[in-house]
């Protein structure tokens, strides 16, 4: 009896394992290279005399406005941006504000935020910070289509991150969108500084528009409140968009209205974020911005085992708003893999629904999410557990081209691409439909 019991248990165990294997696809067909190491930052080599502008990045701050952010070790440097359209010649200047924060035993440097403009579209500007060198430059977004977005999620600070940034640099993009999980500092505040240095070459030349992920929380009960570093360092145009929180906001850029939502702040129907979103979507003019894009961290449609179902509560609350407003595309991170869906609503393929893209595969230290549920849901078109970045080219009011570039080949490889017809172009957002949707969105 004892031997039979052992044999029976063995077969039961084997059957369970085989059943589980039949439910999971380990990625798709692509074989991924081995993981890479975290970047090393020798803090002892950082000189105390390094007091000039550091960690420079720019972000959109309203129509024809740009916010410049940088950090100095000393408090004695003004929040002044000198700028112009020729190298070394700065006929314009603006002065902004400073902030700082402390976190346990860490004290940040002086964080400067200065808004400049009005700017001429599609123009290269040269600028200098705190009345001293070095000189930086950026290109303002265009005032006519086409416009190109680069998209990177869950970037972190590994060799893979460096590879991703190198590939993004080859993209002739106008604005970068990041759906959360920036630095992976995870309470180690010095890693926010190294992240700022890591992205400065790109983030000082094109506007980076970000929203928070779970790794930005950094809350310690009774000791530290959430999102201190994120809110202090990465100030987005929330005030300009009528939002009461830096964790969610919106902005317009040539032909596109982009809504950046917060997966880690209240989103139920009684919340400030929900009510702000409802008002923001009601104000969208599809004649001016025929494309409507939403960016957030935790995906709503995800067939990977990683973080499966974590976006369900937010989706239950907000998906009807997005559907009524006619959102073309929703971009998410969090899952360290890539997935693209058909247009979908309430779990079913819907030609007037939203296309969902999960792109939490920038290069973070946690590695890839390699396990997918099987069979693949009807709404899922392409999925792959590899590091990469996306490019979205809005060609005109009706058509855009999406491509996802696998970066872990150490060369630029387009692994997935598709032409997208906007909901305006497909007839889902006709003029009568727009008026009906405004009624639905009204208080």
Topology:
Elements: H1 2-23, E1 24-26, E2 54-60, E3 66-72, E4 80-84, E5 92-95, E6 97-99, E7 102-103, E8 106-107, E9 110-116, E10 124-129, E11 132-139, E12 147-151, H2 159-169, E13 175-178, H3 190-203, E14 208-210, H4 228-233, E15 249-253, E16 256-260, H5 272-282, E17 291-295, H6 312-325, E18 329-332, E19 338-345, E20 348-349, E21 354-359, E22 371-373, E23 380-384, E24 388-394, E25 399-406, E26 413-421, H7 431-441
Parallel strand pairs: 12-13, 13-14, 16-17, 17-18, 18-21
Antiparallel strand pairs: 1-22, 2-3, 3-9, 4-5, 4-10, 6-9, 7-8, 10-11, 12-24, 15-16, 19-20, 19-21, 19-23, 24-25, 25-26
Helix pairs in contact: 5-6
Summarize the structure.
With 443 residues, the chain is α+β, with helices and mostly antiparallel strands. The chain has helices at 2-23, 159-169, 190-203, 228-233, 272-282, 312-325, 431-441, and strands spanning 24-26, 54-60, 66-72, 80-84, 92-95, 97-99, 102-103, 106-107, 110-116, 124-129, 132-139, 147-151, 175-178, 208-210, 249-253, 256-260, 291-295, 329-332, 338-345, 348-349, 354-359, 371-373, 380-384, 388-394, 399-406, 413-421.
Terminal CA distance: 71 Å
Query: Overall pLDDT, averaged?
Result: 89
Oligomeric status: single chain
Secondary-structure-derived class: alpha+beta
Largest sheet report: 8 strands, mixed
Low-confidence stretches: 1-27, 43-49
Broad shape: globular
How much of the polypeptide forms β-strand, as a percent range? 25-35%
Q: What is the helix tally?
A: 7
Helix proportion? 10-25%
Provide the gyration radius in Å. 23 Å
Total strand count, please?
26
């Amino acid at each position: 009896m004892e031997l039979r019991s052992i044999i029976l248990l063995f077969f039961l165990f084997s059957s369970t394992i085989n059943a589980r294997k039949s439910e999971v696809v380990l990625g798709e067909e692509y074989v991924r290279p081995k993981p890479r190491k975290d970047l090393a930052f020798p803090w002892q080599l950082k000189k105390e005399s390094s007091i000039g502008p550091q960690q420079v990045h720019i972000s959109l701050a309203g129509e024809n406005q740009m916010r410049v952010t940088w950090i100095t070790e000393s408090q004695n440097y003004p929040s002044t941006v000198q700028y112009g359209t020729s190298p070394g010649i700065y006929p314009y200047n603006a002065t902004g504000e400073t902030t700082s924060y402390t976190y346990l035993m860490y004290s940040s440097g002086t964080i400067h935020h200065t808004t400049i403009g009005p700017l001429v579209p599609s123009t290269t500007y040269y600028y200098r910070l705190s009345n001293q060198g070095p000189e930086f430059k950026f290109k303002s977004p265009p005032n006519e289509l086409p416009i190109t977005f680069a998209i990177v999620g869950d970037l972190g600070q590994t060799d893979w991150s460096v590879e991703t940034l190198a590939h993004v640099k080859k993209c002739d993009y106008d604005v970068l969108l990041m759906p959360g999980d920036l630095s992976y500092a995870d309470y180690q505040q010095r890693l926010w500084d190294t992240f700022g240095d890591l992205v400065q070459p790109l983030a000082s030349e094109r506007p980076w528009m970000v929203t928070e992920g779970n790794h930005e929380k950094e809350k310690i009960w009774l000791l530290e409140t959430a999102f201190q570093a994120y809110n202090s360092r990465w100030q987005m145009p929330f005030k300009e968009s009528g939002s009461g929180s830096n964790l969610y906001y919106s902005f317009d850029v040539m032909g596109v209205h982009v809504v950046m939502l917060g997966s880690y702040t209240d989103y139920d129907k009684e919340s400030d974020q929900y009510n702000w979103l409802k008002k923001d979507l009601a104000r969208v003019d599809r004649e001016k911005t025929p494309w409507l894009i939403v960016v957030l961290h935790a995906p709503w449609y995800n067939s990977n085992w990683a973080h499966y179902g974590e976006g369900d509560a937010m989706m239950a609350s907000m998906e009807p708003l997005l559907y009524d407003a006619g959102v073309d595309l929703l971009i998410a991170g969090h899952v360290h893999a890539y997935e693209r869906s058909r247009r979908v609503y309430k779990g079913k393929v819907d030609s007037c629904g939203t296309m969902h893209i999960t792109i939490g595969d920038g290069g973070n230290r946690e590695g890839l999410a390699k396990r997918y549920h099987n069979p693949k849901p009807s709404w899922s078109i392409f999925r792959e557990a590899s590091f990469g970045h996306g490019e979205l080219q809005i060609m005109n009011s009706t058509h855009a081209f999406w491509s996802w570039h696998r970066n872990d080949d150490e060369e630029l490889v387009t692994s997935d691409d598709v032409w997208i017809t906007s909901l305006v172009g497909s007839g889902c957002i006709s003029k009568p439909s727009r008026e009906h949707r405004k009624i639905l969105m009204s208080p």
